[in-house]
Design goal:
It is built from no helices and 19 strands. It has 282 residues and is mainly β. Strand 4 and strand 5 form a beta hairpin. It is elongated, with a radius of gyration of 22 Å.
Length: 282
């Protein structure tokens, strides 16, 4: 075996890139509303957003009732990350039964393209009154499914395409934390569900105060094509003399000219591409 055969698709930049990518989510910053929220459980006041199941997520706006106003509300104090409004929901209402009750926000989106890579980002902030933070925030995409399921209010058992566990338990109550993840669409997903899920390694909770619950604000939701050329070669070791293919995708690129050159380089013995590399295919 050849040691440390770290492969990298080096792209010669002989193309122009469109830097604007359409947000597949309508009203991602929750600014458009039908009426000011007068109480809890009024996510639908910011169409096309809605609660996804019996867990009644909230819409918070500067014009709202004091319980659901911005910046001050029942759950804490936070200015909007963008504009005058945001959404909110419980990750759990009791740390002793984290799967007993969870709130989600959901909305239809522009159908995704199968095989394309998407960047999924949003701003989140833990509410001041929360006694716990957690690492389970994520995004679930689906198509050809129910608009809403009212079969309960427990934590969803689905596997989200995007989990923000790499950020750990998000504990910041003063600032908005921008979380970003990527995935390749394997279906023409046309609905999005945001909330707390159970990570594969188990849910991590961090105690912060006297409260028994975890509640997060959500703002500025963006789902867009990941710009650029994505190297999809995943293997890190091959046998000497082997032939191989380097798959790639091109997202959000206006012009791709016939003169563009793609090169595959072999790193030096320490795994670095700074010097001593060898071009093994063009």
């Amino acid at each position: 075996m050849v040691r440390n055969l770290l492969l990298f698709a080096f792209i010669m930049l002989f193309f122009s890139v469109n830097t604007y990518a359409q947000n597949m989510v309508s009203n991602g910053n929750f600014e458009t509303y039908t009426s000011c929220p007068s109480s809890f459980s009024q996510t639908a006041n910011a169409p096309p957003w809605r609660a996804y199941h019996g867990g009644s997520s909230d819409y918070l706006h500067v014009c709202g009732n004091p319980n659901v106003s911005v910046p001050s509300n029942t759950f804490g104090w936070q200015n909007a990350a963008s504009g005058n409004a945001y959404a909110g929901g419980y990750s759990f209402t009791s740390v002793s039964s984290v799967n007993g009750y969870t709130e989600y926000i959901a909305a239809p989106i522009t159908a995704l393209t199968i095989g394309a890579q998407y960047e999924v980002s949003m701003s989140v902030s833990l509410s001041n009154m929360s006694g716990y933070a957690n690492n389970g925030l994520g995004v679930f995409f689906y198509d050809n499914g129910p608009t809403t399921t009212l079969t309960g209010s427990a934590t969803l058992s689905v596997t989200p395409q995007v989990l923000y566990t790499s950020y750990g338990a998000i504990t910041d109550t003063q600032n908005w934390v921008r979380v970003t993840g990527y995935f390749i669409a394997d279906s023409a997903y046309d609905n999005i569900v945001i909330g707390r899920f159970n990570p594969p390694g188990g849910l991590t909770t961090t105690g912060l105060g006297s409260g028994n619950y975890s509640y997060y604000y959500v703002d500025s939701v963006v789902v867009k094509l990941a710009t650029g050329i994505n190297n999809l070669y995943a293997d890190s070791m091959i046998c000497a003399g082997d032939t191989f293919q380097v798959p790639y995708t091109i997202n959000n690129v206006n012009n791709f000219n016939s003169g563009n050159v793609f090169s595959v380089q072999l790193s030096n013995a320490s795994g670095s591409f700074a010097s001593g590399t060898t071009t093994i295919g063009t």
